[in-house]
Structures are given as structure tokens and as C-alpha cells.
Design goal:
Number of domains: 2
CATH superfamily of the largest domain: Acid Proteases
Oligomer: single chain
Number of helices: 6
Number of strands: 15
Structural class: alpha+beta
Order of helices and strands: EEEEHEEEEEHEEEEHEEHHH
Helix content: 10-25%
Largest sheet: 6 strands, mixed, barrel
Distance between the termini: 28 Å
CATH class of the largest domain: Mainly Beta
Length: 309
């Protein structure tokens, strides 16, 4: 069996927490620039200086290139294949959702319903690992300015900025709904409600038709036994994401404590806001993993599908 998750290689801007080791972070502004590399991949940036010099004369906000796709494959074991044969009758038909998007320049906005109460136009961004909302939208949701909230580190022109991390009960785009979605609250947005990131989009196989302006979200096609309403791929991705995040945060914590070489005492380092933020966000993801593991145990999810830091 070959399991594919299809992504359109198009991102309006890369806005991701620093502890994910494979990403870079940029500040959000209201103006974006688009360029296409030699491989046909589409890139978006808010900083024209970051466009490679050989592509600057090709920067275009009107032309819409053809879609390029990438395969993401999760290997299976012989036991998984046996399980799928044993429970073939338990396969479920995946749902597909087609969402009409609103074009804005070369980007697209998706109408979203947050916590089933507040509407927001979120820019679809496959380059953002996490969904972001503006401070104005957060205020409409009644999210308080709590200094004790966990915060994520974002790299800006002025240095690292720690932005609050909150959990929304749900985000619904069209008829596609994902519950318990982490979002970061940013005060940097200008005339933008936020970004719809991969922690929502990754719940589906996604494709974006630039010509028709439609976002297609298709649920995974789980084969074999369904555990707690989800198949093997969903559980594996969820565990790996939380476990990987915790490992990365622990590495940041070690680096911060390593500042002792500069003459700072451990007790003094632990009093810094940076250290406190790291501790808060690590506890947040440890709690998420603990709850996921508890849900997995209740659903009798096989241990080989789970991952821990």
C-alpha cells in the first residue's frame, strides 16, 4: 500500500515557531512578493531583499503558475498489511470538502469559523506549521492577555518575539472542521485576520487549484481498523508531531542553560522570561501528548503507532 499526502508547493509566507528545526521564520506584513525558482516551486515573502537576485526580475504578483505536488509517504509494516486485510470490512469512505477561496493578489483567503462563533478570513499558508490569528480576532474570541500563557518564539527583524499560544475548541472551513487546534496570537498583522497553517491543513490531503480558486480538503483513506475515529496515519502523525516538538524544546532549554559559560548562574537564568517561556510551552506540549496518549490507550491504539520524546 502506498499512502500519499498531497501538498501544493505554494506558501504565502513562512511563519513557524523556532523550535521546529527544519524551518525558518519571517515577520508578517500586509504586502507579499512571489517568485518561482528553476524547479517551478512557488515562493512567497514579505521581504523583497530575500528574493534571490537572479529571480528578482521575474517577481510577479499576477501570474499564477501550474501546481507542483510533493509526496509524503509513511512506510508500512507486514503487521500493518495483515491488520488491513483482517479489518478490510471496517474501511470508511473519506469525505471531501471543496472550499471557495477569495483571491487577494497572488494569495487566497479562506472563510473560517472559530470556536463555532467568530468568523475570520484566514490566508491559506502551507508554509506555516501553525495557524495564527490577529490580536483583534483574539479579542473577539474573548481570549485574555494572560502573561502565563505558553508562548512560541518567532524571529523578526527586531529579534525574537514570543507570541501567545492558545487552544481553540474548533476551526471550521466550509464543512471541514478540526477540533482542538493550537493557534498563536500575533499583533503584527495589518488588515489580516490571520493565517491558516498546516496544523489545520495537515488533517487532510490538500490541493489548491489556483485557476478556479478552490481549496480541496480530503480526509485520509484509513484502511484497516479505525481507532477512536482515526486510522493509522492520523495517529502516527499526531504522536510524531508532539514528540518531535517536545524534543526540540528540550534542546532549546539546554542551550539556554548553557549560557552558564558566559558567567550567568543557573538560578539567574531560570528567572529570565525566555527560560520561563520555554518551560511553559514545553509543559503545554507535554500535556497535549499526555492527553493524546490517554485517548490512544482508551481506543486501544497499537503501541507501535505511538512516539515519545
Amino acid at each position: 500500500m502506498r499512502i500519499l499526502v498531497v501538498y501544493k508547493l505554494e506558501a504565502c509566507i513562512t511563519i513557524i515557531a523556532l523550535f521546529f528545526s527544519f524551518i525558518s521564520v519571517q515577520t508578517v506584513y500586509s504586502e507579499f512578493y512571489k517568485w518561482v525558482d528553476d524547479m517551478g516551486n512557488v515562493h512567497f515573502t514579505d521581504n523583497p531583499a530575500s528574493v534571490p537576485e537572479r529571480y528578482r526580475n521575474k517577481t510577479d504578483t499576477k501570474e499564477i503558475p501550474q501546481t507542483n505536488e510533493m509526496e509524503y509517504e509513511i512506510p508500512e509494516s507486514a503487521e500493518d498489511r495483515l491488520s488491513e486485510e483482517m479489518w478490510a470490512s471496517e474501511e470508511v469512505s473519506p469525505k471531501e470538502y471543496v472550499i471557495d477561496l477569495k483571491p487577494v493578489g497572488s494569495s487566497f483567503l479562506a472563510g473560517a469559523l472559530l470556536n463555532r462563533s467568530i468568523k475570520a478570513d484566514l490566508m491559506v499558508d502551507t508554509g506555516a506549521s501553525i495557524t495564527l490569528i490577529s490580536r483583534a480576532v483574539a479579542d473577539k474570541l474573548g481570549l485574555k492577555h494572560d502573561l502565563n500563557l505558553p508562548k512560541l518564539p518567532f524571529n523578526t527583524a527586531g529579534g525574537i518575539v514570543w507570541q501567545p499560544l492558545v487552544m481553540l475548541k474548533s476551526i471550521k472551513v466550509g464543512d471541514a472542521e478540526v477540533k482542538n487546534v493550537e493557534v498563536s496570537v500575533s499583533s503584527k498583522f495589518k488588515g489580516l485576520d490571520g493565517l491558516l497553517g498546516m496544523n489545520f491543513l495537515d488533517e487532510f490531503n490538500i490541493s489548491l487549484n489556483s485557476t478556479s480558486g478552490k481549496l480541496i480538503l480530503k480526509e485520509d483513506s484509513p484502511k484497516g481498523k479505525i481507532y477512536g475515529g482515526h486510522g493509522r496515519i492520523w495517529w502516527i502523525k499526531k504522536f510524531r508531531r508532539y514528540a518531535g516538538t517536545i524534543r526540540s524544546i528540550k534542546n532549546i532549554k539546554k542551550k539556554i542553560l548553557g549560557q552558564r559559560s558566559s558567567g550567568l548562574r543557573v538560578a539567574d537564568i531560570k528567572k529570565t522570561e525566555e527560560y520561563k517561556n520555554v518551560v511553559r510551552v514545553m509543559r503545554h506540549y507535554e500535556n497535549l501528548l499526555r492527553k493524546l496518549d490517554s485517548d490512544a490507550s482508551r481506543a486501544a491504539v497499537p503501541m507501535e503507532w505511538r512516539a515519545y520524546p
